Amino acid sequence: MKLLLTRTYYPRGTNGTLYAGEQVLCRTIELPWRKNESGISCIPEGKYEVVLRHSKQHGEHLYLPDVESRSLILIHPANNALKELRGCIAPVTTHTGEGTGTESRKPFERLVDLVGAALTSGETVILEIVKAI
């Protein structure tokens, strides 16, 4: 399964749209681009494998294990990138500003179900991140 995340960069955050094929799955929020600096920047554009992971803090969530020069890059619920993210990606229902959105848990749960089903059926899940045109 291939997921596509198209991004628009702003000084206070990065807003995106996540697709599976032609279907819009949700919007996303991330930190602003700050040259991939750990904890203060979104990750670089590129292709990343997505796997399921479980932790006490986030429960079941999605993990991007192979991000260059970064670790623990997750996809998890959040509504304010600057306050709640350290390089991760958060699905949201709607954007409310630069790096902010609403109702993150709903699209997050749908995304975990979709990716989980693909992984259970033996598919590899790849997230491609590109700049919006």
UniProtKB/TrEMBL annotation:
Residues 5-115 form the DUF5675 domain. InterPro entries: DUF5675. It comes from the Bacteria. This is DUF5675 domain-containing protein.
